[in-house]
């Protein structure tokens, strides 16, 4: 009898991280616990990929700051790290492309490990033979909150083929609150329903609603945000004077990059 | 000209079993709120873990709860943990704990008052609590009326709730609390955060991660001492909460006696 093999999983979270909070970090912990509890997965890495400035979201501060704050927040984690590739691209990058980029890097890294001792010919054959096997025992999954899942329904926010690629070829881990119903949303979408086996819903029984919006609001008002995000991140924010009324007005008149791209809308 | 502010110390009593980020948030929120009234200057915060004789189910040894609170508060420059209550031989009524701390605060203040020549406002001590605390006043046998009066009338409460109106309703529904409503400060926490020590213990029992819910140093301590197992949660399972027994037998004198 063939024993079932455990699939290695890398979790990828895309987002503004403006700023990163303890809630973002919790998502990784919850996702890992959930997936490993099924007995089918071993989560080996977590990647946080802050969006580039070209996303043009209101209140989005410079990527260099968001990267550094995320790096500080992940310092105490031995498996979650920050990646700057997406934020360094000149234009906004669709999430599906970010997923593709990281998956290809993962595959290449796995094959480099295999390649070390083989001669060129054997190496080429093994790549061809193992190509399918690699995808079975190593998966990249997009980690997100219920709001991202539901954003699949916002017109012109996502290309249908991108959604298909993310949930069809890879996987989605969606952290949801006790009061929202992602299953219903999946049920109501033919595309999502088709790939429902690749969508892992993680119920967060203990609501931990630390939104970055709330954190920015508190900072503007001079209120304490201690214990909502790591002390090192708070220190960085204070040191650089980030998050003021001015910073919140950034991109106020600009159209969000995905909407601009898919509808041909132009900024004012 | 800036109005003079009353120096204020916030005292939080509780199990702290274990202390979590949410407990520490209470202090931050309360301080911001009391400052914004323009009448107070928060000068200190005290975490006072309850003694083992409280008899609550799942309560681990006070020495651990105090140690964990110390670790959690290491990085705070205004909140400290105090073990007086936890070291008393029997469970101590909240008002007694408050009287003890107020006495100390007053002494310290009088010692240093010579240096502050323009502030002659006496310091105050208020009890910091969550919204569920107000509901405990309704539990028969848990509180004496004269203690509630001393707590809210003489000292005062700073009650942090998660945006719901339940604490205001609890005050409204009690004549005693309603009479003293000017001394009950309601602080709203708009971030919905249901992290509780109960949930943390549950997660630990199940081998699930509690990272980012409490400081790393506290998590390490818990693992090092193997606290919070199925066995620890069964502790005191059939015991009656000590206050219910004690107050039925020999009531503590009220402040007027």
TrEMBL record, chain A:
<dbReference type="GO" id="GO:0005634">
    <property type="term" value="C:nucleus"/>
</dbReference>
<dbReference type="GO" id="GO:0004515">
    <property type="term" value="F:nicotinate-nucleotide adenylyltransferase activity"/>
</dbReference>
<dbReference type="InterPro" id="IPR045094">
    <property type="entry name" value="NMNAT_euk"/>
</dbReference>
<dbReference type="InterPro" id="IPR014729">
    <property type="entry name" value="Rossmann-like_a/b/a_fold"/>
</dbReference>
<dbReference type="InterPro" id="IPR004821">
    <property type="entry name" value="Cyt_trans-like"/>
</dbReference>
<dbReference type="GO" id="GO:0005524">
    <property type="term" value="F:ATP binding"/>
</dbReference>
<comment type="pathway">
    <text>Cofactor biosynthesis; NAD(+) biosynthesis; deamido-NAD(+) from nicotinate D-ribonucleotide: step 1/1.</text>
</comment>
<feature type="domain" description="Cytidyltransferase-like">
    <location>
        <begin position="12"/>
        <end position="217"/>
    </location>
</feature>
<keyword id="KW-0597">Phosphoprotein</keyword>
<dbReference type="InterPro" id="IPR051182">
    <property type="entry name" value="Euk_NMN_adenylyltrnsfrase"/>
</dbReference>
<keyword id="KW-0662">Pyridine nucleotide biosynthesis</keyword>
<keyword id="KW-0539">Nucleus</keyword>
<dbReference type="GO" id="GO:0000309">
    <property type="term" value="F:nicotinamide-nucleotide adenylyltransferase activity"/>
</dbReference>
<keyword id="KW-0460">Magnesium</keyword>
<protein>
    <recommendedName>
        <fullName>Nicotinamide-nucleotide adenylyltransferase</fullName>
        <ecNumber>2.7.7.1</ecNumber>
        <ecNumber>2.7.7.18</ecNumber>
    </recommendedName>
</protein>
<comment type="pathway">
    <text>Cofactor biosynthesis; NAD(+) biosynthesis; NAD(+) from nicotinamide D-ribonucleotide: step 1/1.</text>
</comment>
<dbReference type="InterPro" id="IPR005248">
    <property type="entry name" value="NadD/NMNAT"/>
</dbReference>
<keyword id="KW-0548">Nucleotidyltransferase</keyword>
<keyword id="KW-0547">Nucleotide-binding</keyword>
<keyword id="KW-0808">Transferase</keyword>
<comment type="similarity">
    <text>Belongs to the eukaryotic NMN adenylyltransferase family.</text>
</comment>
<keyword id="KW-0862">Zinc</keyword>
TrEMBL record, chain B:
<dbReference type="GO" id="GO:0009435">
    <property type="term" value="P:NAD+ biosynthetic process"/>
</dbReference>
<dbReference type="InterPro" id="IPR005248">
    <property type="entry name" value="NadD/NMNAT"/>
</dbReference>
<dbReference type="InterPro" id="IPR004821">
    <property type="entry name" value="Cyt_trans-like"/>
</dbReference>
<dbReference type="GO" id="GO:0005524">
    <property type="term" value="F:ATP binding"/>
</dbReference>
<dbReference type="Pfam" id="PF01467">
    <property type="entry name" value="CTP_transf_like"/>
</dbReference>
<keyword id="KW-0067">ATP-binding</keyword>
<dbReference type="GO" id="GO:0004515">
    <property type="term" value="F:nicotinate-nucleotide adenylyltransferase activity"/>
</dbReference>
<dbReference type="InterPro" id="IPR014729">
    <property type="entry name" value="Rossmann-like_a/b/a_fold"/>
</dbReference>
<keyword id="KW-0808">Transferase</keyword>
<comment type="pathway">
    <text>Cofactor biosynthesis; NAD(+) biosynthesis; deamido-NAD(+) from nicotinate D-ribonucleotide: step 1/1.</text>
</comment>
<comment type="subunit">
    <text>Homotetramer.</text>
</comment>
<dbReference type="InterPro" id="IPR045094">
    <property type="entry name" value="NMNAT_euk"/>
</dbReference>
<dbReference type="GO" id="GO:0005759">
    <property type="term" value="C:mitochondrial matrix"/>
</dbReference>
<comment type="pathway">
    <text>Cofactor biosynthesis; NAD(+) biosynthesis; NAD(+) from nicotinamide D-ribonucleotide: step 1/1.</text>
</comment>
<keyword id="KW-0547">Nucleotide-binding</keyword>
<keyword id="KW-0496">Mitochondrion</keyword>
<keyword id="KW-0520">NAD</keyword>
<feature type="domain" description="Cytidyltransferase-like">
    <location>
        <begin position="11"/>
        <end position="202"/>
    </location>
</feature>
<dbReference type="GO" id="GO:0000309">
    <property type="term" value="F:nicotinamide-nucleotide adenylyltransferase activity"/>
</dbReference>
<comment type="similarity">
    <text>Belongs to the eukaryotic NMN adenylyltransferase family.</text>
</comment>
<dbReference type="InterPro" id="IPR051182">
    <property type="entry name" value="Euk_NMN_adenylyltrnsfrase"/>
</dbReference>
<protein>
    <recommendedName>
        <fullName>Nicotinamide-nucleotide adenylyltransferase</fullName>
        <ecNumber>2.7.7.1</ecNumber>
        <ecNumber>2.7.7.18</ecNumber>
    </recommendedName>
</protein>
């Amino acid at each position: 009898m063939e024993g079932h093999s455990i699939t290695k999983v890398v979790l990828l979270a895309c987002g503004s991280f403006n700023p990163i909070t303890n809630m973002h970090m919790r998502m990784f912990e919850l996702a890992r616990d959930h997936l490993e509890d099924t007995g089918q997965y071993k989560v080996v890495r977590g990647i946080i990929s802050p969006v580039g400035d070209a996303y043009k979201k209101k209140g989005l501060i410079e990527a260099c700051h968001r990267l550094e704050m995320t790096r500080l927040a992940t310092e105490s984690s031995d498996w979650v790290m920050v990646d700057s590739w997406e934020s360094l691209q000149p234009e906004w990058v669709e999430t599906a492309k970010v997923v593709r980029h990281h998956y290809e890097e993962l595959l290449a890294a796995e094959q480099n490990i295999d390649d070390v001792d083989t001669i060129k010919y054997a190496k080429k054959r093994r790549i061809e033979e193992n190509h399918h096997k690699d995808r079975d025992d190593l998966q990249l999954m997009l980690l997100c909150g219920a709001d991202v899942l539901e954003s699949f329904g916002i017109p012109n926010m996502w290309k249908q083929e991108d959604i298909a690629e993310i949930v069809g070829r890879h996987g989605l881990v969606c952290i949801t609150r006790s009061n929202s119903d992602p299953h219903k949303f999946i049920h109501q979408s033919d595309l999502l329903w088709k790939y429902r086996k690749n969508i892992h819903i993680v119920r967060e029984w203990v609501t931990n609603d630390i939104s970055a919006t709330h954190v920015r609001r508190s900072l503007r008002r001079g209120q304490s945000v201690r214990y909502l995000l790591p002390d090192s991140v708070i220190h960085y924010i204070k040191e650089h004077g980030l998050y003021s009324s001015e910073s919140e007005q950034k991109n106020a008149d600009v159209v969000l990059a995905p909407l601009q791209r898919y509808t041909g809308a132009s900024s004012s | 000209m800036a109005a003079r502010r009353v120096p204020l110390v916030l005292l939080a009593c509780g199990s702290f079993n274990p202390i979590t980020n949410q407990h520490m948030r209470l202090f931050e929120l309360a301080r911001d709120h009391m400052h914004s009234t323009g009448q107070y200057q928060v000068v200190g915060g005290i975490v006072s873990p309850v003694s083992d004789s409280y008899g609550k189910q799942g309560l681990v040894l006070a020495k651990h709860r105090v140690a964990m609170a110390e670790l959690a508060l290491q990085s705070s420059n205004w909140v400290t943990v105090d073990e007086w209550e936890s070291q008393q031989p029997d469970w101590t009524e909240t008002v007694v704990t408050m009287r003890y701390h107020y006495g100390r605060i007053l002494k310290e203040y009088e010692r240093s008052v010579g240096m502050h020549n323009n502030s002659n406002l006496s310091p105050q001590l208020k009890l910091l609590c969550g919204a569920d605390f107000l509901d405990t006043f309704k539990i028969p046998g848990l509180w004496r009326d004269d203690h509630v009066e001393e707590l809210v009338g003489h000292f005062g409460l700073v009650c942090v709730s998660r945006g719901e109106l339940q604490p205001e309703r609890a005050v409204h529904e009690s004549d005693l609390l309603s009479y003293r409503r000017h001394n009950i400060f309601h602080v709203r926490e708009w971030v919905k955060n249901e992290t509780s020590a109960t949930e943390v213990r549950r997660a630990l029992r199940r081998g699930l991660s509690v990272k980012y819910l409490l400081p790393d140093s506290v998590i390490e301590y818990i693992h090092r001492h193997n606290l919070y197992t199925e066995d620890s949660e069964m502790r005191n399972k059939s015991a009656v909460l000590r206050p219910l027994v004690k107050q039925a037998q020999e009531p503590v004198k009220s402040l007027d006696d």
